[in-house]
Amino acid sequence: MLCLGARLGTEVKAFLDHGCFAVGIDLNPGKSNYYVLRGDFHNLQFADRSVDVVFSNSVDHVFDLEKFVKESARILKAGGLLVIEVGRGREEGGSSGFYESLHWSTIEELLSFLKNYGLGCLLRQPIDFPVGGEHLILQAPRKN
Predict the structure, then answer these.
(1) CB < 8 Å & 24+ apart, contacts of 120-124
(2) Is there a contact between 6 and 29 (Cβ–Cβ < 8 Å)?
(3) What is the pLDDT of residues 11-39, one digit of tens each?
(4) Domains defined along the chain, listed by start
(5) Residue 105 carries which DSSP code?
(6) Strand-pair partners of 138
(7) Which residues have a Cβ under 8 Å from the Cβ of 129 and sit 6 or more positions away?
(8) Inter-axis angle of helices 65-75 and 107-115, nearest 10
(9) The pTM is what?
């Protein structure tokens, strides 16, 4: 499992605690971080079709959504999962904070964009915390 935009590694640690092999990447992983490598989710340093699951709750920090999606899809194994947590879009009552670089009109609009890259939606699960939005689980094609 690869966690994108993992900051200090809280999500990575949670996945490890549940028995997953997990590592995170972040532009600034902090000093002496055992869980997160320095890296950019727009330019992943991992081999094609090498990762079973990509997780991110940092999609709103993406500068180039197309690069983010292409890189995520590139490293996913056939049938691999992209699991993202996204806030509501502007038309759904969501709003961008000071540090966010990307926002969408609706979650459906974002989902349509992701589907254009061959990712099929397996699950949409509403969330209320830390912000209202959805967990989206998308699957790479079974044959790459």
Answers:
(1) 122/81
(2) yes
(3) 999 999 999 999 999 999 988 999 999 99
(4) 2-139 (3.40.50.150)
(5) S
(6) 82, 121
(7) none
(8) 50
(9) 0.92
